[in-house]
Amino acid sequence: MSELTQARLRAAVVAVAPVVVLISLLYHPYVTDFTDQAAFADEVAGDPTRWAWSSIIAAVGLALTVLLAFSLPSYLKATGELTWSFIAAPLLTAGAVLIAYIGPGSELGLTTAIEAGASGQAVIDAATRGSRRSSR
Hints:
about 140 residues; mainly alpha
């Protein structure tokens, strides 16, 4: 791959990644109270398709953010900055992976269970019961 093609791909990722993350945030359904598990399950059950698509879009945006983290050091290196870019890329990658695992992954599991006919409240109860056991 030529240097010009690589530069264009890096520029595209830098331009597109934040836009995709913004679209996922704007499309994501509003949640009145995350702490009320029954109300949260009811909100997801109200429109599980929208929840699933917003989670998928968020996962794609976060994957692009990981690519963005790898393209930024090349831009910084071109400007002469060699110290912080080496540290920033792995931290950005770790943060994006954690957010992708915690956010869209948990919502997709809940929406899939609701689409299959399970009770949203039962899924949340089972998940919180399992996390309480693993924290002991």
